[in-house]
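Hi Y.,

Following your request, here is the sequence exactly as I used it, all 91 residues.
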Amino acid sequence: MTSAGSPAYYEIVVEGVLDQRWAAWFGGLHIDSDGTQTVISGQVTDQPAVHGLLAKIRDLGLCLISVHRLDGDQAANQARPSGMGPTSRPR
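Below is the corresponding structure, written out as tokens. Let me know if you'd prefer a different format.
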């Protein structure tokens, strides 16, 4: 398990659609949408960076659905082809 001050893999699910053009604004994280929800995912350096991402989501007026911090094994399993499909995504 990683500590709160070390990098970790996160999946943040929001209501609404963002396309890959937003990746740079979200620090180069992966942006994946299914037409109704968007998953923003990738390695985040520390907790302040996570809170910064959440502030950006708030500033866009997006509805936050979930935030998942994945351990090393789960993060390794998230390497997948493009298209929606995180295993922990709520429906």
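The chain has one domain: 8-77.

Thanks again,
Q.
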